[in-house]
Amino acid sequence: MTDRGPTLTQRLRARGLDGVTLLVLPCVLAIIALFIYPFLYGLWLSFQPKDGTTMGNYDRFFREPFLYKTIWTTLKISIPVTILNLLLAVPIAFRVRLMKHQRLLTTILVLPITLGTVLVAEGMLFYFGPQGWFSRTVMALGLMDHAPSITHGYWGVFLSLLITGFPFTFLLTLSYVTGIEPALEQAAATLGAGPAARFREIFLPLLLPGLAITFCLSFVQAYSVLPSAILVGDPANTTRVISIAAYQAAFEDYDYSLASAIAMIMGAVQLVVVAAILGARTLVYRGPVAAAKG
């Protein structure tokens, strides 16, 4: 009897291409259609400026202060917000992990993430605006003789991003904090290590890689600051971020080529910051990482 060898199905299965693996194919197609193709098309479009030169859009962006200064404006908002969110999330996560009603407290803390940026901004306008409750209370108590300028400026955008970004940062931080084996802390306490020493010698080294990833993800979220910068900021001046520049180029000037170039620069700046944080993490710590839960 002639040995006809393995069938095509058997050969594909041997290479890991079975029926279960093929279920991933729709996801791959969706990623190509929604992310890879738009990115490649936008990259190609950014090299098609109206003046006909290949690098015309990029040359214009870095030549005009009204455009390139948006990079610094965006970083000046997003990086401090990310740092403060992380500094708030770490101690709160350590406290919440020891409480009985952890799920209830977590739900309360992450509630702002369900509201969305626009609804939070609208609420801030009603509360912190010139005629809002906060402003009227401050003036009624005689603390100030005029309404505090919180909205329609830098601090309005800062506070909006802090409110909407904290739940995301907190959830990521809590997952890493609860992923640390409690026996390690108990062993250190048995050996006489105090709370500060336990945090410095056990928790911090294990959390550093996770905190670096949390910082990167929170930074990327804060970097796309378009709704807050317009609703509670000063989009023509102090909070004219790079996403506003891209929006104006596309939908006010109808220069989609320049808008694509600005979007590419926006992504490149994010990649630089993320690469710097991950590189610094590698230099500082290369040991085991706390496993995230949830």
From TrEMBL:
Record's GO cellular component terms: plasma membrane
InterPro entries listed in its UniProt record: MetI-like, MetI-like_sf
Organism encoding this protein: Siculibacillus lacustris
Statement: the UniProt record of this protein carries the keyword Transport: yes
Protein family: Belongs to the binding-protein-dependent transport system permease family. CysTW subfamily.
Protein name as annotated: Sugar ABC transporter permease
Its membrane topology: Multi-pass membrane protein
Domain ABC transmembrane type-1, chain residue ranges per copy: 71-277
